[in-house]
């Protein structure tokens, strides 16, 4: 997905971001570092809360953090006006994906889940092609093929449907991650089409309220019989306030200032931080197979989103600074 594909509704904002890259590059790197840590915190939380309560507590904390900010900025009328669409995007962009990742982290490492998360731009490009008629070039089609081959190779290594010590089969964990990234891809196109121009704080707050309402009943039903400890609560407080509340303000601001393709491209950098945090704090290992598949996925995703181009377009790309 190229910068031009951000569409007329976001064209002016994206052009401003491209003209002044320093205005969004800091947000880009900060968002990657924050979201990289979310896998660590969710892993800690889900071991005691369980997947659905973990996701529900995360979005509820984020909603409680963001809603007062909306009031202080005088944006409550905007939130009331657009509540249906922002609540809906919350289920797609937060509720379902967070529950999927919390489930997956019971069985697979934070590094592996973050590598699968790096396919978000690729799925976003595919959804934009189907839904927004953003027809890809031959280079981007090749990127989609390469990226999906990388995903298949990575998933094949975890293809067992036999439950491991966690009680969850690795194959189901991988499929849960892929469902999450599919939701992210759909939500990016939905945001571009229906929420363009809405203040990022309103979109962020509305989405977390919607996700909270959507997850409240199943989380209550599956709430752990034994109250989780302080470390699990602190982990979810961090993932709710920083990795969700603050992060989604940055994310929707990136969509406005740099366009959906560049905003989604932040997932290229997320696995670097996630793997680093997993190795340092959880003692996780990184296998050569994971690194090889990650390289294939990143190359395919970069091609499919237009960040890399083949042939004559590559020379034109080389004459200007990289988009991120």
Describe the protein.
The chain is mainly alpha-helical and about 325 residues long. The protein has one domain. Helix content is about 75%, strand content about 0%. The protein has helices at about 10-20, 20-50, 50-70, 75-80, 85-105, 110-115, 120-130, 140-155, 170-195, 200-220, 230-260, 260-265, 270-280, 290-305, 310-320. The protein is globular and about 50 Å long. It starts with 7 loop residues before the first helix and ends in a 6-residue tail after the last helix.
What is the fold's blueprint, element by element?
Blueprint: H1 8-19, H2 22-49, H3 51-72, H4 76-81, H5 83-104, H6 110-117, H7 120-131, H8 138-156, H9 170-194, H10 200-221, H11 230-258, H12 260-264, H13 270-282, H14 288-304, H15 312-318
Helix pairs in contact: 1-11, 2-3, 2-6, 2-11, 2-13, 3-5, 3-10, 3-11, 5-9, 5-10, 6-13, 7-9, 7-14, 8-14, 10-11
Residue share in β-strands? under 5%
Largest sheet: none
- How many beta-strand segments? 0
The global form is globular
Q: Class by helix and strand content?
A: mainly alpha
Rg, Cα atoms, Å = 19 Å
Alpha-carbon distance between the termini? 14 Å
Summarize the helix and strand pattern as letters.
Answer: HHHHHHHHHHHHHHH
| Total of DSSP H or I helical runs spanning 4+ residues | 15
**How many independent structural domains?**
1
Helix proportion range: over 70%
Mean pLDDT across residues: 83
The stretches of 5 or more residues where confidence is low (pLDDT under 50) are 1-19, 313-324
